[in-house]
Specification:
Elements (H helix, E strand, L loop, with lengths): L3 E5 L6 H10 L4 E5 L10 H13 L3 E5 L6 H7 L2 E3 L12 E2 L3 E2 L13 H13 L5 H4 L6 H10 L36 H27 L2 E8 L2 E12 L11 E18 L2 E4 L3 E12 L16 E4 L2 E5 L9 E2 L1 H7 L2 E4 L5 E8 L10 E4 L8 E10 L5 E4 L2 H10 L4 H14 L2 E10 L3 E4 L9 E16 H16 L4 E4 L6 E4 L8 E11 L4 H8 L4 H8 L5 E9 L13 E5 L4 E3 L1
Parallel strand pairs: 1-2, 2-3, 3-4, 7-27, 8-9, 8-28
Antiparallel strand pairs: 5-6, 7-26, 8-25, 9-22, 10-19, 11-15, 11-16, 11-18, 12-13, 13-16, 14-15, 17-18, 20-22, 21-22, 23-25, 24-25
Helix pairs in contact: 1-2, 4-6
């Protein structure tokens, strides 16, 4: 059996569980370490119950606490108390309802274990109500006390291994600080969720307010005035090297945007070619002079000359020299012409292409020699060719290349849009009239006669378009309108949206352009200033300001959405439309 054991109690422990731990312990001396707020030991009944059960189990219990509220109660019950595990246990001074706290005497100073105090406390509880105060003062002299001390004066050791120096007594009115127990704080997720919901709602409210009162509001104001149309017709010249407008010659700075595109198409090949062995043989060339033609010396037939038999061409491999031809009387008499032959020098021939069709039917077949016949003169050959074989392969034909070219469909509309975008980004007004595409340049990936299953043809096309500096063109139009109406009226619109362009000199010069527009003139209303002036105003205020201009005939103000009652305080949210005039100035 262990002599000592320390048990740490929790603030939620019940007295029954504490007693159960004491009874089941194998130790004789048990130190109960109390929590800071040990509510179960605030009860006298619990104290007495603990003392009685521990005595029945023959165990000595020591309470480890410095709680000043528990010390008098433990002393009145007679339970040992120590401030720490290394302090000497003692029975605190008891508290009596009639007598208050009973102080110790000098004789108790050497009572290390407090057994005399325990005996006195127990005796006080039993006798104090029937003993006079004078007699209580001499309790330590009574036989009963002596007997009690002699019986219980045992030595009880706690966990201390060495004698501790006497602790300094603190003032009664000063509470002993207890070590703070650190507790792990568990987050309150419900509270966190509530906060998140509130934050989301707040953001939605703020976003909705911004959307409703800053993004959606818009004002549309339509104004009808005594304005009129003015037709304009201005010719000008484009100059890509100019940097400023030349009013005298109506030359406006211009820019030419260019772009090249490559398109392609693929078709299957349909041509056929015989790659078999070429037929070879020999011939004898003859030259005849008939029809009363005078005798002419024989002509040299060079190597590489094509001779034809049955519409098939054969190529001579060596030269038939004029000096090698000799008069042939037999043939001359038979043909009644002068015949010269080269019988001593046979001419080798090779078929122009492979194939068995070039094999001749025998070795005495007549061949023609194109290009050497003349009036009264005929050049021919006699011989044959053999050894031609067939091997048919698919090759590129000219018809295949033509079909591929016809399949190419250039998308000029997309290129036109790209050029317009480039000119706009550069600050120039595009002139679609000047859009030009060059003739395509076709390039096949395989040439005619090349063995292939397909042929791809690429077409390269270059595109270009002019753009004019809009500020310069605007000045020319402005001057033209002013020359017609004078300075009494203001130009409300130059009519660029409906402008039409044409070449001044037909199609001979793409840099000479004429523009025709319909400008609008009327009262001088500065739209930008008017927008700033009416920002944040109500409809009635807007009407009062605009109608101050005597040339305004009518006005309508439309605010949206429906809950908006004032014009937005943002000029970009205000649209002012001046109605088109009913009359024109030519």
């Amino acid at each position: 059996m262990n002599n000592k054991e320390t048990i740490y109690l929790d603030v939620d422990d019940e007295i029954t569980s504490v007693i159960d731990k004491v009874v089941k312990s194998d130790a004789k001396i048990i130190s109960l370490v109390l929590p800071k707020r040990a509510s179960i030991f605030q009860s006298t009944v619990n104290m007495k119950l603990l003392k009685r059960k521990s005595e029945q189990a023959e165990k000595k219990v020591v309470l480890i606490t410095a709680d000043p509220n528990l010390l008098p109660l433990a002393g009145s019950i007679g339970i040992l108390v120590a401030r720490t595990l290394n302090s000497n246990p003692e029975i605190p001074a008891p508290f009596h309802p009639n007598l208050g706290i009973i102080e110790t005497t000098e004789e108790d100073d050497d009572d290390q274990l407090g057994l005399r105090k325990a005996a006195r406390s127990e005796l006080n509880l039993k006798q104090a109500s029937n003993v006079p105060i004078g007699q209580l003062a001499g309790l330590d002299e009574t036989p009963t006390l002596k007997t009690k001390l002699d019986q219980d004066l045992d030595t009880i050791d706690l966990d201390n291994t060495k004698e501790e120096p006497p602790e300094e007594k603190e003032p009664e009115n000063k509470k002993t600080k207890q070590p703070k127990t650190k507790k792990i704080k568990i987050p309150n997720f419900k509270r966190f969720k509530l906060i998140m919901v509130l934050v989301v709602l707040l953001l939605l409210i703020i976003g909705g307010y911004i959307l409703a009162f800053n993004v959606l509001p818009h004002a549309t104001i339509k104004i009808a005035t005594d304005s009129s149309n003015v037709n304009t017709n201005v010719s000008f010249n484009l100059d890509t090297n100019a940097t400023s407008l030349d009013i005298g010659t109506s030359t406006v700075p211009a820019k030419q945007a260019q772009e090249s595109k490559t398109y392609s198409a693929t078709v299957n090949t349909t041509g056929q070619q015989n790659n078999g062995q070429k037929a070879t043989g020999t011939v004898q060339i003859s030259q005849e002079f008939c029809g009363g033609a005078p005798y002419t010396p024989a002509t040299t037939i060079p190597a590489g000359t094509g001779i034809v038999q049955n519409n098939l061409t054969y190529i001579t491999q060596n030269t038939a020299n004029a000096s090698d031809f000799s008069y042939n009387p037999a043939q001359s008499q038979q043909n009644k012409c002068y015949v010269f032959t080269d019988s001593n020098h046979p001419i080798n021939i090779t078929a122009q292409q492979g194939g068995s069709g070039y094999n001749t039917n025998g070795n005495n077949v007549n061949f023609s020699v194109p290009g050497y016949d003349a009036t009264g003169i005929t050049v021919s050959a006699t011989g044959g060719a053999t050894g031609g074989t067939d091997q048919i392969v698919t090759v590129v034909s000219q018809n295949d290349i033509t079909n591929a070219e016809n399949k190419i469909n250039p998308n000029s509309s997309s290129v036109k849009s790209d050029l317009e975008s480039k000119l706009n980004q550069a600050g120039f007004y595009p002139l679609p009239l000047t859009f030009v595409a060059t003739a395509p340049t076709y390039t096949p990936n395989n040439q005619v006669g090349i063995a292939a299953n397909s042929v791809t043809v690429s077409a390269s096309i270059s595109y270009s378009m002019y753009g004019v500096m809009k500020s310069g063109l605007t000045t020319l139009l402005d001057n033209n309108v002013t020359s017609q109406v004078g300075n009494s009226q203001s130009i409300l619109s130059l009519g660029f949206s409906g402008a039409t362009f044409s070449f001044t000199n037909g199609n001979s010069d793409p840099t000479a352009i004429t523009i025709q527009t319909t400008a609008v003139v009327g009262p001088n209303i500065n739209v930008a200033n008017l927008k700033q002036q009416i920002e944040g105003m109500k409809i009635a205020q807007v009407r009062n300001i605009i109608t101050q201009n005597s040339n305004v005939t009518s006005i309508s103000v439309n605010l949206s959405p429906f809950y908006i009652s004032t014009v937005p305080k943002n000029a970009s949210k205000i649209t002012i439309d001046i109605a088109k005039p009913a009359k024109s100035v030519n």
